[in-house]
Amino acid sequence: MRKKLVAGNWKMNTTRAEATALAAAVAKGVGTDDRVGVAVCPPFPWLTAVGDALTGSAVALGAQDVHYEKKGAFTGEVSPAMLAECGCTYAIIGHSERRHILGEADSAINHKVHTALEEGLHAILCMGETLAERERGLQERVFQRQVYAACAGLTDEQFGRLVIAYEPVWAIGTGKVATPEQAQEAHAFVRGKLRALYGDKIADATPILYGGSVTGENARDLLKQPDVDGALVGGASLKPDSFLAIVAAARG
Ligand code: PEP
Questions:
Q1: What is the pTM of this model?
Q2: I need a labelling partner for 47 at 20 to 30 A (CA). Which of 67, 78, 124, 215 fits?
């Protein structure tokens, strides 16, 4: 059985004091209960302070992005080894804000997934269709292209550290959550693609999270779906109570 994961993406929010207070509250709420995986992904400058605040809890630390090269002349970028040294076990890759605002391409995302996994991180690979793509009925073509491109060349061992997050772009930060049926349909399609491309073992083991306006109120119905293995949470991860309510929903 796949273990559920709830990951908070704090985006470019929080001061250092807010970040450490939020992390401490999440750590206190989760304690050492690891029935569900929990991770928080603060901005880069707060990683070590947040890592310190999580000490002794079951909450993991993640980054919101990672560079695709291991080191060198890449001004402003952060390598997977640097993230690991800051205490990260997860890195979000290919978030829609990076794909659509910063122009990140499928090829760069594939490169990032490879480098992150080679360096021992767990990659949370984001994918999902825009509203225009859904309105034209193109979502399954988009899923197929994104999964195929991002996962190309991964070994079975690397798949063991891959998490996929289905995040319809129209649901991110909009309050327009996908219905549980829409989420299940998308997740089942993605899992079917993994099965066709990489076989039963990888398809059955890869966690697929849902992301897009998840709250403590709507999480339970989404997380009840057989192919929804957790949540990637933006806005609601900035308040301990709402994030912990989603963790509680994931515990069932
Ligand atoms: C996200 O940015 O990954 C996200 C899911 O945001 P929100 O929960 O705010 O829609």
A1: 0.97
A2: 215
Annotated catalytic, 187? Answer: no
Fold of 5-251: TIM Barrel (3.20.20)
How many angstroms separate the CA atoms of 139 and 164, rounded?
16
For residue 38, the cross-strand partners are 6, 59
Distance, in Å, from the CA atom of 117 to the CA atom of 112, rounded to the nearest integer, reads 8
Q: How many CA atoms lie within 13 A of 75 on its CB side?
A: 0
Centroid of ligand 1 to alpha carbon of 73 (angstroms): 32
CA 237 to ligand 1: nearest atom: 8
Nearest in space to 162 (alpha carbons), one of 127, 214, 213, 211: 127
Q: How far apart are CA 121 and CA 71, in angstroms?
A: 16
Q: What is the CA radius of gyration of the chain?
A: 17
Tokens read off for 146: 């994104």
pLDDT at 48 over 90: yes
What are the domain boundaries of the chain?
A: 5-251
**DSSP letter (8 states) at residue 105:** -
Q: How far apart are CA 64 and CA 79, in angstroms?
A: 12
Residue 7 has pLDDT above 90, yes or no: yes
| Whether 95 is catalytic | yes
| Per-residue pLDDT at 221 | 98
- Give the distance (Å) from ligand 1 centre to CA of residue 166: 11
Nearest protein Cα to ligand 1, atom 4: 234
Closest approach atom of ligand 1 to CA 11: 2
Measured CA to CA, the distance from residue 98 to residue 41 in angstroms comes to: 15
